[in-house]
Amino acid sequence: MRTVLQRVSSASVVVDGVEIGAIGPGLLALVAIERGDDPSVVELAANKIATLRIFSDAAGKMNLDVEQANGSLLVVSQFTLAANLEKGRRPSFERAAPPAEAEILVETLVRHLRLRGLTVECGRFGADMKVSLVNDGPVTIVLELGTAPP
User: Fold this and answer.
1) What is the residue range of 68's domain?
2) pLDDT averaged over consecutive 10-residue blocks of the chain (150 residues)?
3) Catalytic residues
4) Domain membership flag for residue 47
């Protein structure tokens, strides 16, 4: 599982000209489920995402997690993060999990985050999405978990 986390002032996702998800301050999570990922990997990712201390405290130090910073999450599936660029100039996406499997695991991630009491908005799995964001910092973290094949 590969996730790009961006601390944002705001973020939104649009499908077919309609905004389907938007947040103010918080985290935009671009999520790729890879072959070999399972619910235990997703649960570990949810715990990491929820407790990652990348928001500033009163002293300006990265010391708060998204809940402590009163932030929200926008979760967007993005299989292209599973790209393999080792050969040629065209990315291979064979590391990405099959769509039906990946969709279930992205939904599982969202469920785990919501069970922690977090406000979570979502993109639409498999849709052509337009994602807008204002990166705060900028702060961008890559989270890689699981046993995806090389």
Assistant:
1) 2-144
2) 98 98 98 97 97 97 97 97 94 96 98 98 97 97 78
3) 78-80
4) yes
